[in-house]
Structure of MerR family transcriptional regulator:
Amino acid sequence: MVSYSIAQAAHQSGLSADTLRYYERIGLVDPPARDSGGRRTYSDADMAWLSFLTRLRITGMPIRLMVEYATLRRGGVGTSARRRQILQQHQADVRARIADLQACLKIIDYKVENYLNVEQRLGLLAQVEQDSA
């Protein structure tokens, strides 16, 4: 079994050591095992959980819902319905944000295309003015 120091876990997860300690303090992660020197050691399972939590944060899940989800997770399969509900709501929220971003991207694409057309016309106009001089 592989174990990771807090520095290694931080590096691999993309989170800071302070964030890992904070996640432990608020109950998002269980206290990791400790080595003989009392230093935190993270398992592959811990790393997989951190990866999942990171994806929830990146996609905008509020910390309070992440904490609720983590608490329910500790409760076992009997909590699966509520965990599914949390994830389904978040899934819908993420899809709505993606749709909003796609609509925004269409506007940006239009503006970029418009500027390219303007610049092309200006280039042609400049060429015509040079040719007639």
Remarks:
- The first strand starts at residue 3 and ends at 5.
- The two ends are 79 Å apart (CA to CA).
- The helical segments are 6-13, 17-26, 44-58, 63-74, 80-132.
- The domain at 3-132 is CATH 1.10.1660.10 (Multidrug-efflux Transporter Regulator; Chain: A; Domain 2).
